[in-house]
Design brief:
Layout (H helix, E strand, L loop, with lengths): L1 H15 L8 E2 L4 E2 L6 E6 L5 E7 L10 E8 L4 E5 L9 E7 L2 E8 L7 E2 L4 E4 L4 E2 L3 E9 L3 E2 L2 E2 L5 E9 L18 E8 L4 E2 L2 H7 L1
Parallel strand pairs: 4-17
Antiparallel strand pairs: 1-3, 2-3, 3-4, 4-5, 5-12, 6-7, 6-15, 7-8, 8-9, 10-12, 11-12, 13-14, 15-16
Bound molecules: protoporphyrin IX containing FE.
The site of protoporphyrin IX containing FE has 20 residues, from strand 6, strand 7 and strand 15.
Protein name: Cellobiose dehydrogenase-like cytochrome domain-containing protein
Pfam family, one: CDH-cyt
Keywords: Signal
């Protein structure tokens, strides 16, 4: 009897326990932002940072296209970024971090394993849905120049190898997108199905966002 009760109690406690999130995770369904109304394909890294991507459904591999990126990070994350070519060096890097009540974007590039410097090959529009609240910061941008570099274009119909990096130490001067910052304490790669990130009506939705 006691064994049965113990087993019952155990089963009840397992049922009552909150589901433990297993990271990293790629979302099966799109994740839509309440404020911007944009819907993204999402990858959540083991660091707890979500990297969300949306591209026009009309994108082709023969011409550059804009990419909407949303980075949602717990407050403990000082900076987080994406390497569009799947490695730290020789491709556009998009970094974000919390700045007061919002978040800012920093466009970077490096040819090696040293602090990436400003990159003018990509330009960004920061959406008003970017924010910092008591638990998280969120950077929502549209990048022109992240889909193409060194003469190659990310194939919007295939899987792309993307990389992420983040640090729990914030940049030296958070209000300045050219600020110095230190090395990551989380980094990795994932395979992003670019066709899963396609969003119908992209340009109109971005305009409205
Ligand atoms: C002060 C800035 C940075 C420094 C000093 C730095 C340094 C390094 C070093 C020394 C490595 C190789 C050793 C290791 O595996 O830890 C590395 C690897 C890596 N870093 Fe950085 N890093 C910086 C910023 C960034 C940024 C901003 C990104 C992406 C947004 C990034 C992405 C990566 C990735 C994906 C790797 C894995 C190997 C590779 O792709 O080359 N790093 N970094």
């Amino acid at each position: 009897m006691r064994t049965q009760l113990t087993a019952l109690a155990l089963a009840a406690s397992v049922l009552a326990a909150p589901a433990t999130e297993i990271l990293p995770r790629v979302s099966d369904a799109k994740v839509c932002d309440d404020v911007s109304k944009l819907c993204y394909s999402e990858y959540v890294a083991f660091s707890g940072v979500s990297y969300r991507i949306a591209i026009p459904d009309t994108a082709t591999a023969t011409a550059p296209y804009d990419i909407a990126l949303s980075i949602v990070a717990p407050k403990a994350i000082g900076w987080a970024g994406i390497a569009w070519g799947g490695a730290m060096a020789n491709n556009p890097l998009t970094l974000g971090w919390s700045n007061a009540a919002t978040a800012i974007v920093s466009s970077r590039f490096t040819t090696g394993h040293t602090m990436p410097t400003a990159y003018t090959g990509a330009s960004y529009t920061t959406l008003p849905s970017s924010k910092t609240n008591t638990t998280h910061w969120q950077l929502d941008v549209v990048c022109t120049g992240c889909s193409t570099w060194s003469g190659k274009t990310l194939d919007p119909g295939a899987a792309a190898s993307l990389a992420f990096a983040s640090s729990t130490t914030a940049p030296a001067d958070p209000s300045n997108n050219a600020s110095r910052f230190g090395i990551h304490n989380a980094k990795g790669k994932w395979s992003q199905d670019m066709s899963a990130a396609k969003l119908a009506g992209f340009a109109t939705l971005v305009q409205a966002a």
